[in-house]
Design goal:
The protein has about 190 residues and is mainly alpha-helical. The protein is built from eight helices and two strands; from the N terminus they run ααββαααααα. Strands 1-2 form a two-stranded antiparallel sheet. The chain is elongated.
């Protein structure tokens, strides 16, 4: 075997491993972004299923260890560093959920499934005198800001503003939850 034949044989044996290493190195970031989305991973005899199984285990762990319950406000504030707009949208969803729960407790026959859902919630809270005018104004202003973040092109929010928004959302959530608890309390009714 001469030197040229040796080099060709060596290149033939190393080509696929080199292509594999090159691919892993260049695709490292996109692949690492996909791993959290994976539901199942299998390599030879090793197999791991994520997703539903993990959620089920997490629920059991929360029941067994109450200290594992997640403080949503803290998580959102921590995520502002990298995802301020997403944090704002999540904080608003907490307000929305608390307002809907309060309305369904006080007015079980009201249906809030429409295109103008947020305006309907706000209008119901005000017309039924569930919250006062100042709280309704806060609800409205937070909704408008949420819509700017969600729908306006090029609208960017600073980290400090995102934290302030989250704080205001959770003040309103706490108030709405307190009103719901009061309406469930037979002594106060």
């Amino acid at each position: 075997m001469n030197g040229m034949q040796f080099f060709i044989e060596l290149l033939d044996k190393l080509a696929w491993p080199l292509v594999f290493i090159f691919s892993v190195v260049t695709l490292q970031k996109p692949l690492s972004a996909l791993i959290p989305l994976a539901k199942k991973f299998k390599f030879k005899d090793f197999e791991v299923e994520f997703g539903q199984d993990l959620k089920a285990v997490s629920k059991k762990a929360e029941g067994a260890f109450p200290e594992l319950e997640i403080d949503k406000k803290s998580v959102l504030i921590a995520s502002v560093e990298n995802l301020p707009s997403s944090s704002i949208l999540q904080a608003w969803s907490e307000v929305d959920k608390a307002a809907e729960n309060l309305i369904s407790t006080k007015l079980p026959n009201v249906i809030l499934d429409s295109i103008t859902r947020y305006k309907d919630i706000e209008e119901t809270l005000v017309t039924e005198q569930i919250i006062d005018t100042k709280k309704a104004k806060l609800f409205s202003e937070l909704r408008v800001l949420r819509n700017k973040v969600a729908h306006a092109k090029g609208y960017e929010v600073g980290k400090v503003e995102a934290v302030q928004y989250i704080e205001l959302c959770f003040v309103l959530v706490d108030h709405l939850n307190q009103l719901k608890l009061q309406s469930n309390d037979p002594v106060k009714n």
